[in-house]
Specification:
single chain, 4-stranded antiparallel β-sheet, alpha+beta, about 40% helix
């Protein structure tokens, strides 16, 4: 069936009954016009991008260039991991399945003490077959097109600019390094939030953390204690601070992000997040996502004198006063935990907040106010802090509906606007004006998260909200991703449109815009329509209200790096034959069917974006 049943929706497509079967190759050639090239990149630097550099960045940071298939040694190495997985599944076949312990550290070197000879025989047989497959395959020399490889090298060696993804997913941003550095230092010069220090007191902090864990071994399990004290292979690192440009702000702002990877409190933050998240989920104002909001508002009828309001907390994470934040945390967790565990959570939280060190351009700073965006603990801590403030104020009679997603809130108010502003004043008044709000009101229509919320005749309807600066840098069709990944991306996006559009006309308009944008990213029309046909409008109620099912799978996976040549190796057939041999033995039928888990090659983001900033360019080797 032709999309929408109407050719006029897409007049640039050939008619379905057209005798011209030759595909329109220009549909999937990316960058077909100068206008399309230059409209996708936010170049705020003094560097004038060449045409090839523009073409490369226009592909988006998720784009994966052509890459050679994995080497025989890499494929055989992955087969050893699959062999270990098969042996483990057979060894623990009679062990009752227990809930996954999120704090149990894996031991990748442990092997079953007793091996099952028939399984070993099957593994050796198929290892020999795989060895013949990979060594009899002719090597393929895959190269990145010259215009892209030359642009990639020129951008990598340009030490005067920095390439970053912009905040709110608004596309690639190119900045002068001097501008980036000046903005960053301006942010770090806020003496109420940051303090420059001479060194990172690692030994002292390790001692304090060990001392806290040792004193609470009766409260913590041994698995949890080992998880919190786990030391990474490369040792502890100071958290790296980097910034994302906020292009939607005037003037342009910076959002600070702190990388917690391999930091001293990385595991502690994960443990705290796991303890505090169930408390947050119980709060009535907690909002999971816009899908949940649409579910709650779809059949809600408001009083005739009501209007909509939204507010955003300005710079929530670094604005939380330390004493009030810890006081709020203790008051919220006390009813849910024993006194000893409450004391442990409070002590670890105070340690993470008080001794949060970060580095920028080789200089170490200590954050003395609030918390840094980037750790697992930060989000749930900030959300619970706002819950504490909201619980201090009894809900007024004019508040008909209220919900909040982190620092973005939506509500329906039945009083006057002055009464609303007077009520919301409790956020700054209870924090010494540390918390500030940006408030919007409307009697009929407001944007919130990724939707337009419309109020008409006391009933709600919805439309998709897309920011004006959005460059729609979807994954190009030419990217080195599996075909099913691109299909699922289109299907999921159309499913998102379906839930967020209340009318068939709005849904079809969004699909039409999405179709044109995908064609501009190189997708063949037939490929797009294949995904479109799976999501008709009459599925909206089903998708909106059906509960999400979770399955506890214990799959047997064979990891393999994807390239367009990798499927030609015949690994799917190889795994099918391996599984058939396993099923011949009654003691091996409990092993799940092995399947390929594709891993990615390096993307443009991995090749060009660097979070660790250095003002001085590296010295060239002599």
């Amino acid at each position: 069936m032709w999309f929408g049943g109407k050719q006029k929706l897409f007049p640039f497509l050939p008619h379905p009954r057209s005798r011209n079967k030759k595909p329109r190759t220009d549909f999937w050639k990316p960058l077909t016009s100068t206008q399309a090239i230059h409209s996708k990149i936010h170049n705020l630097s003094k560097h004038s991008l060449t045409r090839n550099e523009t073409r490369l960045l226009n592909l988006g940071l998720k784009y994966i260039p052509p890459s050679p298939p994995p080497t025989p040694n890499n494929i055989l190495k992955e087969f050893t991991h699959l062999s270990r997985s098969l042996k483990l599944k057979h060894f623990f076949r009679n062990t009752p399945s227990l809930p996954l312990n999120p704090f149990k550290l894996p031991n990748p070197n442990w092997m079953p003490p007793i091996e099952y000879p028939p399984l070993v025989s099957i593994i050796e047989k198929h290892q020999h077959i795989l060895n013949q497959i990979v060594h009899n395959t002719k090597p393929i020399n895959t190269r990145i097109p010259y215009h892209l490889s030359s642009a990639l090298k020129s951008l990598q060696h340009n030490h005067h600019i920095i390439i970053l993804p912009s905040d709110k997913n608004m596309g690639v941003c190119v900045l002068d390094k001097d501008t980036y550095y000046t903005k960053a230092i301006e942010h770090l010069s806020n003496s109420t939030t940051y303090k420059r220090v001479s060194h990172f007191p690692l030994e002292e902090l390790v001692y304090r953390l060990n001392n806290i864990i040792t004193n609470h071994l009766g409260t913590l399990s041994l698995v949890e204690a080992n998880f919190i004290l786990h030391k990474p292979k490369k040792g502890y690192q100071v958290s790296t601070l980097y910034f994302l440009p906020k292009l939607h702000k005037t003037p342009m702002g910076f959002r600070p992000i702190c990388s917690y990877k391999n930091s001293l409190f990385e595991q502690t933050s994960k443990w705290l997040h796991h303890q505090l998240l169930p408390i947050l989920l119980r709060q009535p104002q907690y909002l999971k996502d816009s899908h949940t909001l649409i579910q709650s508002l779809e059949n809600l009828h408001t009083p005739s004198n009501s209007f909509l309001f939204t507010f955003d907390v300005e710079s929530l994470y670094p604005s939380i006063p330390p004493k009030i934040g810890l006081q709020a945390l203790r008051s919220l967790i006390t009813p849910h935990f024993s006194p000893s565990k409450t004391n442990l959570i409070y002590t670890l939280s105070a340690l993470v907040l008080e001794y949060h060190y970060l580095t920028f351009d080789g200089v170490v700073y200590q954050q003395i106010k609030g918390t840094a965006m980037g750790s697992n603990f930060s989000v749930v801590y900030a959300c619970l802090f706002l819950v504490y403030l909201e619980n201090l104020q009894p809900p007024p009679p004019h508040l008909f509906y209220f919900t909040r997603y982190i620092d973005d809130a939506f509500g329906v108010w039945t009083g006057t606007k002055s009464q609303l502003l007077e009520y919301l004043d409790f956020y700054p008044s209870n924090t010494n004006n540390s918390i500030k709000l940006t408030i919007q009101t409307s009697p009929s229509r407001l944007p919130f998260l990724d939707i337009w919320i419309n109020l008409e005749n006391s009933s709600f309807s919805f439309n998709c909200f897309q920011k004006p600066l959005n460059t729609y840098q979807y994954l190009p069709f030419s990217s080195n991703h599996p075909s099913h990944t691109k299909q699922h991306f289109i299907t999921n996006e159309v499913r998102r449109y379906l839930i967020r559009e209340s009318t068939p006309l709005g849904f079809y308009q969004m699909k039409k815009l999405f179709f044109i944008r995908l064609v501009n990213r190189g997708y063949p029309p037939s490929f797009i329509l294949k995904a479109y046909r799976k999501i008709p409008f009459n599925l909206r109620k089903t998708l909106l209200y059906q509960p999400k099912t979770t399955t506890s799978l214990n799959p047997t996976i064979f990891k393999l790096r994807y390239t367009k040549h990798t499927p030609k190796l015949g690994i799917h057939s190889f795994l099918k034959n391996l599984y058939n041999d396993l099923m011949l033995d009654p003691d091996l039928i409990s092993i799940a069917r092995p399947f390929i888990c594709w891993t990615k090659s390096k993307s443009i983001h991995a090749l060009l974006v660097k979070t660790k900033f250095s003002k001085n360019p590296p010295k060239s080797p002599t």
